[in-house]
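Hi there, hope your week has been kind to you so far. Please have a think about how the structure follows from the sequence. I've dropped the whole record in just underneath, so have a look:

_____
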Amino acid sequence: MYVAKCRQGESFTQGKIVPYGDISISPCSPILNYGQGLFEGLKAYRTEDDRIRIFRPDQNALRMQTGAERLCMTPPTLEQFVEAVKQTVLANKKWVPPPGKGTLYIRPLLLGSGATLGVAPAPEYTFLIYASPVGDYHKVSSGLNLKVDHKYHRAHSGGTGGVKSCTNYSPVVKSLLEAKSAGFSDVLFLDAATGRNIEELTACNIFIVKGNIVSTPPTSGTILPGVTRKSISELAHDIGYQVEERDVSVDELLEAEEVFCTGTAVVVKAVETVTFHDKKVKYRTGEAALSTKLHSMLTNIQMGVVEDKKGWMVDIDPCQG
């Protein structure tokens, strides 16, 4: 894993690759006491000709910088972030699965690790990256079955829903466990202000399709600006769809022809059903679904099956390291 440290107000110096293992941290560090921490998620892919590639690491670097500004943290520069990701992947290149067998999930962390008892920015920050081979996030081969949660909320205006703060995730676990115990795949959260508009799932963004229009809720502070979300919006536009980033009501969701989710973990995943109170709606899935086409377009770029005309992929020479 990669580890770098810096003092508050200074810049990260060159980090180093060390064996994966436990880390030592002060009991009064802000990450442990006040949740001053961010994380990112991206993937490395092995192509048929044995190249190793990373998907848009610059976007994760920029998102970490945005989150760091919100949480009063010192982030790595874009160049430091990308270089650290490359070093981590090279050090773990044997764990990048063969084509079609999975990917190497990369988890960068920015932690308020220095000791301070009061509620304040940490005096020291740790930038750490580890990685793990992964398969499919959702094991179901068909679409997801979502429950619209009208009791709990994921984020609120003025909060941290728009950045990848560590504190955003444990509060959704209770809702997710309740949904899974009732047979659902995941939870779709509503906006806290009105309870009428959809926002996102526990760990991915959502799109609805009706006719030639693809709509997704706006990243106006309560929704995470997903890298896959951004990429899929661009690909849908490229093949002639009108892509709208706007408020999407539950009523529109229930009247959509197709619904799908996007994220680093789920990639592009069709939604088969949505249940809101006692109403259950079924959507288009399978070969006729737009999500199937978009999934193929995106993964073909990631896996080097087609030329990367977008400049999204960063190649790593597996002979290095």
The CA atoms of residues 208 and 259 lie 4 Å apart. The chain has two domains: 2-134, 144-302. DSSP finds seven helices and 17 strands in the chain.
